[in-house]
Amino acid sequence: MKLKTRPEDFIVEESADFTPDPAGAHFVYELTKRSLATLEALSILAKRNKLRASDLSAAGLKDKHGLTRQLFSSARPLKSDTGDERLELRFVGKARAALTAAIILGNRFRIAMRNLSPAELAVLPANASEMQRAGVPNYYDNQRFGGIAHGQGFIAKALARGDFEEAVRLHLAAPHRKQSMRDKTNRRLAIEHWGDWAVLHDQMTRSPERALVAYLQEHPGGWAGCFERITPALRTLFVAAYQSFLFNRVLTRLIAASCPEHEVLRNRSGEIAFHRADHETLRELELPLLGPSTRLAEFPAAAPHIEAVLAEEGITLAQLKLEGLQRTRFKAASRRALMFPANFAMEPAQPDELNEGRAKVQVSFELPRGSFATIITRRLVLGSQPPADQSGGSES
User: Fold this and answer.
1) Which segments of the chain belong to CATH 1.10.1510?
2) Contact 358/117 with Cβ under 8 angstroms?
3) Taking CA 216 as the corner, what is the angle to CA 212 and CA 221, rounded to the nearest 5 degrees?
4) What pTM does this model have?
5) For the chain: N or C, fewer Cβ within 10 A?
6) What is the C-alpha separation between 95 and 86, in angstroms, rounded?
7) CB atoms within 10 A of CB 216
8) What is the Cα–Cα distance from 158 to 332, expressed in whole angstroms?
9) How does pLDDT run across 37-71, given as a tens digit for each residue?
C-alpha cells in the first residue's frame, strides 16, 4: 500500500465549532495548503505579512503530505495573495481570542489507498467490518515522530533525565533527511565544532539555531537557558513526541496482554498491537498522556503497563516535572484507547493509474480531534503481509 503519492490522495477537512464575532480583535481565516506542514505554512504567511510567528495561531496541526483545510487566527488582517501557490486563504470572520485546539470537533478524511496488492484487496472487506465493530487502537502515527525521533533518541527523554546538554545536542547537532540543506549543513557544523562556540557561530548560516549558539558563547554550560530559547512550538512538539511514544508503548502492552487475537505491526514508535475482536474493557478505556501529576490509581487497568514502560525507559513520573526548566512542561491529560471512525465509506477497487497492475481504493471517514487517519489505513490491510513488512507504505 502507498499513501500520499499526490496531495489530492490525502484530503483533510477540519470540522470546527467556530462562530464569527464581529466585535472580535482577531482575524480568522480558512487555510487550504498543499504539501506543507501547518507551522511551515504559518511561517510563510507571517513573513509575507511582516508578522511574528506568534501573531498567527492555528487550531490544530495538519499533515504535511496532503491537501488540507483548517482554521487559524491572526492578530492583524492578512494579504489575500499568499505569494505561494501551495497556499490559499479565505477570510471567515473575527474572534475575540486567538484560536486554540478547543474549537476542533474532528476531521474529515478522503484517502486514496494506492498500489494495493491482491492480498491487501482480499482482506479489506473483513477488516473494515471488524474495525467498525471493534474500533481501532488510538495510536499516534509516524507524523507525530518524524524528524523528532530520528534514530538518536527523544529530546524530551533527555530532558526528563536532566541531561539538558544532550537535549540541546539532539536539536543542534543531529541532522536528519527531511531537513533543508541549510539546516543539515548547520547541524553537521555543530557536530564538528561542538563546544567551540565562536568558530561554530562564525561558520553557521543565519538561523534560529545560530542564535542558540550565540547564547552558548555568552553562557557556556547554560544548557537549560539555551534549550528554553528554542521556538515554543518546537519545544511543545519535542515533549508531545515523547509523551505520544509512551502512550503507544502502554497501549501496545495492554492490547497484547488482554487480547489473545492480536497482530503486531511497526511504526516509528516501535511495535504497535491491533486487536480483532470487540473488547468491552478497551471500548470504554481512557489512558493517560503521562505527566508529573498523573495518578496511576485513576488508571487501574493500565497502571502495571505504565510502570513497566517507565522502567524500560529508565525514568519516573516525577522526572517528567523537568526540574530546572521554567517554560517547558509535560502536561498530564487522557486519551481514549480506541477510536471509532464515523461515516466510514469504502468505494469499489479500481485500477491504479499510477502503479501498473495494482489497485486503488478510496476511503472516507471522520475521526475525533487528535486521532490519526493513517492508523485506520494500517488496520484496513492488517494481515495481508508479514508483520515486519506492514509499515504503511509511503506514510510520513
Assistant:
1) 155-234
2) yes
3) 130
4) 0.90
5) C
6) 26
7) 21
8) 18
9) 898 999 999 999 999 988 999 988 898 889 999 99
